[in-house]
Write a structure and sequence with these properties.
Protein name: IMS import disulfide relay-system CHCH-CHCH-like Cx9C domain-containing protein
Oligomer: single chain
Largest sheet: none
Pfam families: CX9C
Number of helices: 7
InterPro entries: CHCH_domain-containing_protein (IPR052848), CX9C (IPR031731)
Helix content: 55-70%
Radius of gyration: 22 Å
Number of domains: 2
Number of strands: 0
Organism: Linnemannia elongata AG-77
Shape: flat
Order of helices and strands: HHHHHHH
Strand content: under 5%
GO cellular component, one term: mitochondrial intermembrane space
């Protein structure tokens, strides 16, 4: 499972209700969902930040790019394609900071560690 799939799975697991309410609101308000669904959007964002650490991390690290893109879109609502460079910078930031941290050194399972090897010592390495 890649980072994006894992993130979506965690949001769904921890914020399923907020996600469902936001989706319903968007579906029921196709013309003005961006205005009508702001409460549900904020609830989903808060839940995601509180329960999915990678989201909070990315939002903290990419805050200037997020603000720049949001401001550009608000300023250029008639032609948001003007904001493509801003979106690219935001994308690159999220790519850089949106990776899961390394899981650390390999863990040795107790049974493997106790098995004798040709040298007479238990297995101590990682795969």
């Amino acid at each position: 499972m890649d980072v994006a799939d894992n993130t979506v799975a965690l949001v769904t697991k921890h914020c399923g209700l907020q996600l469902e309410l936001y989706q319903k609101c968007v579906t029921q308000n196709p013309e003005n969902w961006d205005i009508k669904c702001i409460t549900q959007k904020r609830a989903l964002a808060k839940c995601s930040e509180d329960n999915v650490p990678i989201i909070k991390h990315v939002k903290e690290m990419c805050d200037p790019f997020i603000k720049d893109y949001d401001a550009c879109v608000m300023k250029n609502q008639q032609d948001p394609t003007i904001c493509l460079d801003s979106l690219k910078r935001l994308f690159h930031c999220t790519e850089e900071h949106g990776k899961l941290p390394p899981s650390g050194p390999p863990r040795v399972v107790k049974e493997e560690a106790d098995k004798p090897t040709a040298s007479g010592y238990g297995y101590r390495g990682g795969a």
